[in-house]
Amino acid sequence: MAKLSDMIENFIKQMLEENDNNYIIIQRNELANYFRCAPSQINYVLETRFTYERGYYIESKRGGGGYVRIFKAGVDEDHYLSQMLSRKMGDSMGQQVAYAYIDGLLEQNILDEKTHNILKNIVSDKTLNIQLPLRDEVRANIVKSIFLTLIKFCHE
Amino acid sequence: MAKLSDMIENFIKQMLEENDNNYIIIQRNELANYFRCAPSQINYVLETRFTYERGYYIESKRGGGGYVRIFKAGVDEDHYLSQMLSRKMGDSMGQQVAYAYIDGLLEQNILDEKTHNILKNIVSDKTLNIQLPLRDEVRANIVKSIFLTLIKFCHE
DNA sequence: TAAAATTGAAAGTCAAAGAAAGTCAAAGGC
DNA sequence: GCCTTTGACTTTCTTTGACTTTCAATTTTA
Q: A114 to chain B: which residues are within 8 Å by CB?
């Protein structure tokens, strides 16, 4: 019965949707209290679901008056794609990171669900079943190729 | 007494029939418990009876809140896809052959132009820049994975 | 009274425990 | 001899809790 993380994820996403800004501010302990879970559970959700690759950015402050601020990347498709490409995408990429990038494309409404699914399966370890240094290199190439193709489509 | 595997197979098929969606979600351990068998028995049934050649697609997640999701293709309306699926694609595939398969998906209106483009770039020699016996094997896997995933989405 | 220490209120870190599912090889039945 | 069945072991994902760090406000102290 471990849907807690999913519930928290959806809760945060809904807050982001309903908000006029591209960010929300939460109190970690308050949210943990609301869901009756350990505060670190919130960190877990943020670390696994609201990553840079998925188009999110987290900022926080400790101590009195502390907070956690969650940003969601903007809606300019072209900009989003080239940002992702130019920053951080290395020559080697693990399965989870690749998944995150592709999830981000769905969340930004750049891909529909069908394509999203196809691409995730393509970059899975199961499909890319070759030796490990190579596998992650091919995967990085594939993900980059996806972003490149999408950028081309922006300019048509 | 019918074999256990057959009983489990029928049970799952019935669940699929009675469901409005083209998929069902089960807990592996729960089902194993229901049939009083080892959990891995469920895997055996899935591997031998719910293969993609027969028009099924399996998706699963481990850990807390884990599940197994079984999709059934709507075979009737999708002549093309089910034909391709039951036909064996080789374990190795050159660029041109892969292109042909992906072009076919566009012609059958199974893919839109954007996705079609992304996929063709993925299976290109340029993206898959590894040594040659391996390259064609990975490419074959990718193309198969595409068709496999499409099963999920071919219900009216 | 200004710097320094104290305190309490956040958030962060990390590792262990728990909860599924996957793998694989050996044993059992026809 | 090939399907089935089982069970031990592995891997992945989630949840929890104890401990740490940071910050601001307040209180002490020179």
A: 115, 150, 153
ipTM for this model: 0.91
Domain A77-154 has what CATH class? mainly alpha
| Residue pointed to by tokens 């042909």 | B100
A73-118, pLDDT tens digit by residue? 988 999 999 999 998 899 999 999 999 999 999 999 999 999 999 9
The structural domains of chain A, with segments of one domain joined by +, span 4-72, 77-154
**CB < 8 Å to A1, chain B:** 65
CATH number corresponding to B79-153 = 1.10.1200
Which residue from A99, A77, A81, A141 is spatially nearest to B121, judged by alpha carbons?
A141
What CA–CA distances, in Å, run from B126 to A26, A155, B102?
45, 22, 17
| Burial class for B76, CB neighbours closer than 10 Å (0-12, 13-18, 19+) | exposed
Partner-chain residue, chosen from A134, A145, A152, that has the shortest CB–CB distance to B130: A134
Tell me the CATH number for domain A4-72. Answer: 3.30.56.130
